[in-house]
Structure to design on (256 residues):
């Protein structure tokens, strides 16, 4: 009878997740180089269900330099409507060759930039990134 | 643009929109609320990155350099990328898109050197 070997597949896959809870008192949300190095992003979960919430704009930058929320043009910008939970899956992964920095703000539709607003009035209770 | 739009045989009335020649000209595949569940981006025709930009508005309501996109995604040069959205991404009222090599929302959105591809799976 062959010998069966149990393998910790999660350990081999080496997926990691990065989560932040954003409260209504967090008026400016910017995080820099959350991987600590280059990395590949596989999934994003955004929960925008805070009370008195509004549409928000999740912005991601391929940089290890701190972006200025509302000023630095993002590489990726995702509008998230109020009262929704959104999941974005990238089965082949999105490479951040420098590193992943991100910010979130009010959507500010029609403001004239791809940068969104600089502050967060309310909304967004949870954001999770899955990467390796 | 070179587009086709056809219905998948499912109870969901799901549509597939395929554009094999996306450039910096605004295209509006849907004139109604659209729930997008899948996007495929083909930038294998360019060595430089291409930015796909989407608005939840009709083309006539989108002023490049003024109207902020609802969704932006950067696709590295010479690559394809696809994204699945199990929760659906709702474009209220309309859906309009362009492809450009310009990262910022300047009034001039430079066309990619070569046209790029886009496929959307959505439900009206």
């Amino acid at each position: 009878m062959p010998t069966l070997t149990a393998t910790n597949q999660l350990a081999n896959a080496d997926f990691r997740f990065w989560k932040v809870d954003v409260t209504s008192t967090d008026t400016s949300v910017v995080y820099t180089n959350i991987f600590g190095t280059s990395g590949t992003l596989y999934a994003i979960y955004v929960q925008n269900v805070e009370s008195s919430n509004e549409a928000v704009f999740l912005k991601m930058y391929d940089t290890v330099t701190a972006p200025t929320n509302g000023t630095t043009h993002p590489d990726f910008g995702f509008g998230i409507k109020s009262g929704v939970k959104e999941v974005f899956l990238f089965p082949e992964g999105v490479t951040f060759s420098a590193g992943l920095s991100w910010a979130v703000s009010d959507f500010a539709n029609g403001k004239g930039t791809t940068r969104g607003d600089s502050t967060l009035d309310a909304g967004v209770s949870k954001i999770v990134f899955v990467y390796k | 643009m070179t587009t086709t739009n056809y219905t998948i045989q499912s109870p969901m009335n799901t549509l597939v929109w395929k554009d094999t020649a996306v450039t910096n000209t605004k295209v509006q595949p849907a004139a109604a609320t659209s729930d997008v569940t899948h996007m495929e981006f083909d930038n294998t025709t360019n060595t430089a990155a291409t930015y796909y930009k989407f608005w939840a508005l009709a083309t006539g309501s989108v002023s490049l350099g003024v109207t902020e996109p609802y969704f932006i995604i950067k696709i590295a040069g010479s690559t394809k990328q696809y994204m699945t959205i199990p929760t659906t991404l709702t474009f209220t009222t309309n859906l309009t898109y362009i492809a450009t090599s310009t990262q910022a929302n300047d009034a001039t959105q430079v066309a990619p050197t070569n046209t790029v591809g886009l496929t959307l799976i959505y439900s009206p």
